[in-house]
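Work Package 3 (structural annotation) set out to generate three-dimensional models for the target panel prioritized at the project kickoff. During this period the team completed the workflow that converts sequence records into discrete structure tokens, so that structures can be stored uniformly alongside our sequence database. As a representative example, we reproduce one entry of 332 residues exactly as it appears in the project archive.
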Amino acid sequence: ARRQRQMCIRDRQKREEAAINLAITEPSIKVVEYAISNGAPISPNSKNIYLIALLLGLFIPFGAIYTKNILDTKIKGKDDVASRVGTIPILAELPRIKGEHLVFDNPIDRSAQSEAFRILSANVNYILPTTTNSEGKIIYCTSTIKGEGKTYVGINLSLALSSINKKVLLIGADLRNPQIHSYISENKNLDGLSNYLHDETIDWKSLVVKGFDKHPNHHILLSGNIPPNPTQLLTNGRFESLLREAKTHYDYIVIDTAPTILVTDTLLISKYADATIYLLRADYTEKNLLEFSKSLFDSGKLKNMAYVINGVGTNKSYGYNYGYNYGYGNKS
């Protein structure tokens, strides 16, 4: 009987231990009512993600283009210039041509480049003053800074005028940084304008060279040796005498002059010009430099000035297709 009581006590202890263990493991949370769901995830929301992606896809490229246009300080074409220079005429937009030393050396050439310069030569005649005498007209080619293409345009303009049976003299009056010699493969120290201005015994006609065989009416007076005092040479009176005499021998005298913002050479001799072609270059000339050239026109420092935009891309140049840093110095 004693042993049976002990077994009953052990069974009761086991039941109590089991009840305690059950009480410990029993969950304290009960589901009152199950949620109703359609099976789709609440997050991430695919519709919102697609909408945000679409907006970013539109905003990023348009924002990049807008930012690029705001930060781009270079002129692109006629519209950029016309909006800043007022009533100053724009004679032509010359198409960008790949390569550097491309010259209109064939009078019957029919390339886009040649046609562009024929248009320019025709437009130049509209701004030249009408006179009753038969003297030649003096046309200056200048720019604000180096590299805008004044020498390139001056040469091709003179050749375009020569191609219509006009007698043309091209003069290199940029005595500090002459470049015409590089287009005709001549030594830049060949005697030229500076030698004539310095030495009263020299006849300028003896210094004239022919650079293009297919243009018999086209003559060139190179800049000559680079002098230490170009300003004094250009203002000693002999340059005026040269022009006065050249006007009796030639229909047009095209003069390649120095950039206006770097040196005063061009402004000192500007009074002799019948027309001044002011070169700008697309994707190169800063828009804020237009104010400087406009001030030269407004003040009368440059006579009868008109712009020519060089190197304009195909989408800006009405179907034509065509192709320098602020430093300025000697270049071989």
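Residues 77 and 316 are 6 Å apart (CA to CA).
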